[in-house]
Amino acid sequence: MNKKILSLLLAGSCLLLQADEPKIDPETGLKIAKGFEEVKNNCTICHSANFIVQSKNTKEEWLATIRWMQATQGLWEFDPQTEETILNYLAVNYPQSNTSRRRPQLKPKYLPKP
């Protein structure tokens, strides 16, 4: 009896954990969450969404990356609301992680100058 109850509790908790994970867009591989459309429409025009999915940064590092792309890669300027939406999406869904084998992104002061 106890094993059945434990199994049911375990299965239920797994379902709850799955409910918190955002769905993945089949076209881009990006997490579908608040800000997804802005990121898809502004970022995947120039590069693959894999660049985003594989990168793990703090909000400040994402901002530095955007500024570098604006200064050197021809990325247009965003209005403040769009920029904040994009930064929040990236920081929440692709935050800095110490569990990756990939080396950490360069600090903004070490990025190439425009």
From TrEMBL:
Keyword entries, A-Z: Signal
InterPro entries on file: Cyt_c-like_dom_sf (IPR036909)
Keyword Protease: no
Signal sequence region: 1-19
The keyword Ligase appears for this protein: no
Coiled coil: none
Single GO MF annotation: electron transfer activity
Protein name: Cytochrome C
Source organism: Helicobacter enhydrae
